[in-house]
Amino acid sequence: MKIAIAGTGYVGMSLATLLSVRNKVVALDVLEEKVDKINRRISPIKDEYIEKYFKEKELDLKATLDYQEAFRDADFVIVSTPTNYDEELNYFDTSSVEDVIEKVISMDMDTTIVIKSTIPVGFVESMKKKYHIHNIFFSPEFLREGKALYDNLYPSRIIVGDTGESGKKFAKLLKDACLKEDVVVKYMNSTEAEAVKLFANTYLALRVAYFNELDTYAELKNLNTKDIIEGVCLDPRIGDHYNNPSFGYGGYCLPKDTKQLLANYKDVPENLIEAIVRSNTTRKQHIADMILEKKPKVVGVYRLAMKSGSDNFRASAIQGVMEILKNEGVNLVIYEPSILENSFCDFEVIHDLKLFKDISDVVIANRLDEEISDILNKTYTRDVFREN
User: Fold this and answer.
1) What's the Rg (C-alpha) of the chain?
2) Active site annotation includes 253
3) Closest Cα partner for 219 from 53, 380, 101?
């Protein structure tokens, strides 16, 4: 088959790599630098398996800036463009997805559009009515940053928002490309599939928020967080996973998806969903308060990335903490190797790790690393288990 993929972020890049092992894939992006990197087999994102496949596999993959070249004769056009949450509109900004849909329609092709971008519940149905089309459905992704291709090779499940032949054809495409045996495939309507995505991510945000609030209690009451969490998680119904405290949930999905789900509840009774959103704000304020108690002159921010092994710091919780500290008049400096410039959002970036350590009165780290093991006495973190 020929597969076109619009957008080469974590979702698009992992799918392009996965599917180009057995199919012709043309990836579309608006950034010339990313297109050039992909064509030279340099991964534009940090992902161990994508980098490995780029080096070791014969991939039928090409990137382009030309949407007609990408979409022409494609069996499927997969949309994986970013959909950011608009705080003012209280809704996802889906303009990039609609732009792709309009381009496909303009080419008058016999193809199927599969949306992988996260969208509001009911979006596909609204697109069918708006553009008078039927060959479109939603199929959610469940990927981790830095392990996007791995999670496509060994998926927890495949959800397809179409119960017809196109949905089955697309599911087979994904199933044939993955390495996991007996992958569960679930077919449903696109509206239910859209809800699956938002509810799944909001549950993950709930779990992060729960253990963060447990940690806040333990910290303020001078209790051992690790002992409490381990004791709680020995219950098999809870499980010993996804329980390491942090500065809050962040990244590409959880902040915007929880807010979008809450927006979808505008005419539905709820208490819990709103509390999950508010809990993350409360957690970041608590972290900032604990740092302010130390009365530092200079706070060093060790890494902006959400997790070890990731280069993504979009909407990372530590940035929310930084803004609170900045508003309180605290001087902050950043150590983040992936930033080559000397400043980031009006904060000074220090490229020399030793200098960074020397000038910082307190260093804050969402996740610890061996390279700051010598300054643990002045490092503030809630990384209890030393894992992501």
Assistant:
1) 22
2) yes
3) 380
Cα maximum dimension of the chain: 65
Selecting among 178, 233, 253, 345, the annotated active-site residue is 253
For helices 165-177 and 10-19, angle between their N-to-C axes, nearest 10 degrees: 80
What pTM did the predictor assign? 0.93
* pLDDT tens per residue, range 118-149: 999 999 999 999 999 999 999 999 998 889 99
Q: Are 300 and 335 in contact (CB under 8 A)?
A: yes
Consecutive H or E run containing 159: strand 158-160
Alpha helices in the chain (DSSP H): 10-19, 32-39, 48-56, 67-71, 95-106, 123-131, 148-153, 165-177, 190-220, 225-233, 254-264, 272-292, 317-327, 353-359
Domain with CATH 3.40.50.720 in the chain: 2-188, 223-380
Q: How far apart are the first and last CA of the chain?
A: 37
Rounded-to-integer distance, Cα 130 and Cα 89, Å: 20
CATH number of 223-380: 3.40.50.720
Q: What CATH topology corresponds to 2-188?
A: Rossmann fold (3.40.50)
CA–centroid distance for 101 within its chain: 23
Model pLDDT for residues 17-60, shown as the tens digit of each residue: 999 999 999 999 999 999 999 999 999 998 999 999 999 999 99
Whose structure tokens read 């992060």?
Answer: 208
The alpha carbon of residue 347 and the mean position of all alpha carbons in its chain are separated, in whole angstroms, by 24
